């Protein structure tokens, strides 16, 4: 890695930290629960980018699997919370009902 | 090559910061959702594309997992945003008070009822203004 890219990636990881810090304000005090989940979704997606930059800075490719894992878990968590807040349950037992 | 990587990564970080500011500053839940889902998807996928080009060009390994993660973000982030918006509408999260037209509510309860509701809301807003003055 040359010096230019090193500086660029350090600036990038500082910027991602600033963005995650700003978003965590809305996680802690959103007026409704939906606001918190929106901010938590954005936080998880930003965490994927941060781990990508971090794996470049550490010069390893083992952390790339973690990016996939966080993406899948965050998406499943968001969808499960949305469905739970809408209906009161996550997995439909009676799929013919209108509720 | 390193300039392309730098442009991709820095623009992605810029879009992520814009998304975070939008999540904090916008007035109601629906506009916050729009800010979060659109710009964080674009920002994070361009950062991951930069990381992918870095590993391909400098370390000479073609990380298929990163491309898969980019495709995953593009498929799953709009789905999650759509489900969150529908869930918020059905559990009565209030839109911003200056919202002019609520088309989904109009389709559910009909034109005339919605017009009466709008009149009631306008009267309430007038009363609030009088109280403030």
Automatic annotation (TrEMBL), chain A:
Q: Identify the keywords attached in UniProt to this record, alphabetized.
A: Antiport, Cell membrane, Ion transport, Membrane, Transmembrane, Transmembrane helix, Transport
Where in or outside the cell it occurs: the entry states: Cell membrane
Transmembrane feature ranges: 6-25, 37-57, 63-85
A GO molecular-function descriptor: sodium:proton antiporter activity
**GO annotation, cellular component aspect:** plasma membrane
Cell membrane as a keyword of this entry, yes or no, is: yes
How does the entry describe its membrane topology? Multi-pass membrane protein
**Family matches, as Pfam families:** MrpF_PhaF (PF04066)
Using the UniProt record, give the first listed, main subcellular location.
membrane
| Coiled coil stretches, renumbered | none
Listed InterPro entries: MrpF/PhaF-like
Homology family? Belongs to the CPA3 antiporters (TC 2.A.63) subunit F family.
What protein is this chain from? Na(+)/H(+) antiporter subunit F1
Automatic annotation (TrEMBL), chain B:
Main localisation: membrane
Span list, region Disordered: 112-133
Residues spanning the membrane? 6-26, 38-58, 64-85
GO MF annotations, alphabetized: sodium:proton antiporter activity
Q: What name goes with this protein?
A: Na(+)/H(+) antiporter subunit G
Q: Which NCBIfam families match?
A: CPA3_mnhG_phaG, PRK12674.1-2
The organism's place on the tree of life at top rank: Bacteria
Q: Which family does it belong to?
A: Belongs to the CPA3 antiporters (TC 2.A.63) subunit G family.
Give the record's membrane topology: Multi-pass membrane protein
GO cellular component terms, A-Z: membrane
The protein's location, in the record's own words, is: Membrane
Keywords in alphabetical order? Antiport, Membrane, Transmembrane, Transmembrane helix, Transport
UniProt xrefs under InterPro entries:
PhaG_MnhG_YufB (IPR005133)
Record Pfam families = PhaG_MnhG_YufB
